[in-house]
Amino acid sequence: MGVEARGIEVRYGDRVALHGVDLDAPDAQITCLLGPSGSGKTTLLRVLAGLEPAFAGEVRIDGDDVTKVPTHRRGVGLMFQEHALFPHQDVGGNVAFGLRMQGASGDATRSRVIEVLDLVGLAGFEGRAIDELSGGEQQRVALARALAPQPRVLLLDEPLGALDRELRERLLVDLRTLFGRLGLTVVFVTHDQDEALALGDRIVVLRDGRVEQAAPAAEVWRTPASASVARFLGCALCDATVTSGRAVGPWGGIPVAAPDGPVQLASRPDAFRLVVGETGDGVAAAVVAVGYRRDRRFVTVQPDAGGPPLTIALASIDARPEPGTQVRFAVDPAAVTVLPPG
Amino acid sequence: MTSPQPPTRRGPRLGGRVWRFATVAIPAAFLLVFFVYPVLAILGRGLVPRWSFDPEPVGRVLTDAGLRGVLWFSVWEAALSTLLTLAIGIPGAWALSRFAFPGRRAARAFVTVPFVLPTVVVGAAFTTIFGTDGSLLAILLAHAFFNTAVVVRTVGGLWSQLAGRSEDAARALGASPVRAFLHVTLPALRPAIVAAGAIVFLFCFTSFGIVLILGGPTRATLEVEIYRQTADQLQLGVAAALAVVQLLAVTAMLLVAGKLQGHRAVALALRPADAVARRARTAKERIALAVVLVGVLGFLAWPMAILVARSFGSDHGLTLDAYRSLDATGPGSALFVPPVHAIATSLRYALGAVVISVIIGGLASLAALRREGRAGRILDGALMIPLGTSAVTLGFGFLIALDRPPVDLRTSPWLVPIAQALVAIPFVVRTVVPLGRGVDPRLRDAAAVLGAAPARVWRAVDLPVLGPALALGAGFAAAISLGEFGATALIARPDNPTLPIAIFRLLGVPGAQNYHAAMALTTILMALTLVVVFAVEAVPGRFAARGARGSRG
Description:
The structure holds two protein chains of two kinds. Chain A folds into two domains: 3-225, P-loop containing nucleotide triphosphate hydrolases (Rossmann fold, 3-Layer(aba) Sandwich); 235-339, CATH 2.40.50.140. Helix content of chain A is 25%, strand content 36%. Chain A contains eight helices and 20 strands. Chain A has helices at residues 41-49, 91-101, 106-119, 135-147, 165-182, 193-199, 217-222, 227-232; strands at residues 3-12, 15-25, 30-34, 56-61, 64-65, 76-79, 153-157, 186-190, 202-207, 210-216, 236-243, 246-249, 252-255, 261-267, 272-276, 283-293, 296-303, 310-314, 326-331, 337-339. In chain A, the strands form four sheets. In chain A, strands 6-7-8-3-9-10 form a six-stranded mixed β-sheet, sandwiched between helices. In chain A, strands 13-12-11-14-20 form a five-stranded antiparallel β-sheet. In chain A, β12 (246-249) and β13 (252-255) form a beta hairpin. In chain A, α2 (91-101) packs across α3 (106-119), α2 runs parallel beside α4 and α3 crosses α4. In chain A, 42% of the residues are buried. By secondary structure, chain B is mostly helical. Chain B has a single domain (16-318, 355-440), classed as MetI-like fold. Helices cover 73% and strands 1% of the residues of chain B. Chain B has helices at 16-47, 56-63, 65-98, 104-116, 119-130, 136-159, 165-172, 177-205, 209-214, 222-231, 236-262, 283-311, 321-324, 339-369, 374-382, 385-388, 391-401, 415-437, 441-449, 454-483, 486-491, 499-508, 512-538, 541-549, and strands at residues 403-404, 407-408. The radius of gyration of chain B is 25 Å and the shape is globular. The relative contact order of chain B is 0.13. At the A-B interface, β4, β6, α2 and α4 of A face α19, α20 and α24 of B.
């Protein structure tokens, strides 16, 4: 159940935007399509909605083959990045639009509009004009409009992209709670890893029109399936050589379960430990740069043994290594993913 | 296996093939009968008299000293008028687009007033200052008065969106304000200046009403000469030859203008309009701003004020005599009917012209908006051609082509409205198509996802934009019809003069009473035009603009 797509292929002239993509968005779960721009994630979403014709492939919603069903009879809800609210209708008119298309009675429409606006925290906004609303309010109206006709699946195309960071984080929590409460099947397109990890039950990573990895969110975060997924998630990467169960490289020797030979290692920035000083456990390195990202301090170090510089997330902001300081670092072996050599 | 073609990716789609065919065929047929056929008739008269190609009439025009003088005068008065208009309009654009000051919106609206005035009104207004005996200065000033709005709108439009950053950067690098303007701002503005200059030149080259009224018996543009050869001398062959020369000259100008525009694709850092407007900072700036504003606004207000004042004037001071005299055929009057009759005629013709141009222009716009319709694109272009053809040429074509079978409209009350509609249709299409194109395609997607079938999508998304756009177009058509003079002058029946024609005739006869009556009629025509223009711009314009802008993030 939920949404299934099989072998979706989309071409623009000679350019292939999607190479036979498969997608499973299970019932009552949030599936995030994650990828850089140009990876085909929005195209795939438009195929699900029936707005983009597929060259080949099949789309099923709750088991029904909807491949040949035009958009307006698919029963999907879609939210756009720019909201695409009808500027000549007020809030109530926008929210009621889908209900009117279903031929709902005036009374039923009115009560549903009130209900949905209440759900998104905009009770009493029915008569407001669209251009009087703030960005966050427009976003909520767009959500209410998509939810009102009770779609079988809700598709969201970077719905938070146009909002500022603080608002975005607040709305992420709201959305997560709301979707859970409603038991909705959701497909959510984003290029932001944090957003995907915060919201998604499942994550589907797309790159160049192909699926790189499709797995539960925690699994994608724990064990990225390829170097490009790892890099996209912000993992550190290095080359190493495995000899009898130990991967030796710029990160020192790490116990791994892999056959002998060259490999690539990947690890999240928060799996590293840093010790200031020139002696002790771990691998010697020099601090190259120090920076903050919100509540975390990030230190970029250059391992003495060579390899690319890596960025480590410090657990607390108390340690204050200065650039140029000699440090030692170690990585939690459980957090290291072994990938084929690059 | 392929997915179904999503129904919403295309423009309006109503009722299938028949409807689609009609949106192309009806405007095309209209254009063929009322534009192509009359123009071919002119070319026939001018180049193929007696059924064989004979460039002799055109050659005679080009060798006759008097007629060559007409061509030469058209060129140089247009060049001088354009320079004068730019000299007034660019400072005006600077003041109105770069600075915030109290009353700015009103000042901007006021600057566009002269442009919507009928040329007869402009001509009549300047007679109050210069008389009717052929002052060159009067012609140039009247042209500048009429066209300043073009420069202020075009140049100011770009100027108000130009990010001030490059000018600031130049200043920070040590350029004086003047050098920053010359080396940074002016090159950035050049596309708009060239575009505005080209349009103004074309308007002045084909100027009719202003030159006819202010030029006296000696000065004439090609337009005026075509009219005189037709209406006064009855030399249809010479008129046809002149019209051919005019058509060639205008075509050449449009091609050159197109080439210039093609080369001017400049990447500019644009900001939303008004983002760069600021208060004048230094005393110098404030003085310059005040001088420019008083100068430009005064220049534009002055003729209109004198005109209105004269309409209340008589031998006994301020009175309404001139207005009271309008419902009688006074002794010595040049009209065959009481002047008020002209008001009714004008309104009737305007209604007819609006109906025709909204139907034909609306259908053509729908055809042009259908993206896949190649015929629509061709039609879109074809409908612009009457714009380049002068109104007098159109009227002349009607005169020689539509007065005998197969199309005999000599006595039809529709003849004048059709000619006026032909002038108005390009404006209707130019108003509707950009607004229609501006509809955010995602709104169509949104409507489809919410369950709207294609026809419903069109009704929900496109119609709310196209409706007000058509109303706006109708307003323009009404204003154009009310003021149309060139075509109407040749084809209106003597006992059914429109307002501009009545004014022109009254100006042509001596007597203070006639002159005051002309001023009264001119004031009425001015008021009517302004009411129409501001009424339509005020009501649906807001919605049209909102719909076209789409939703904002």
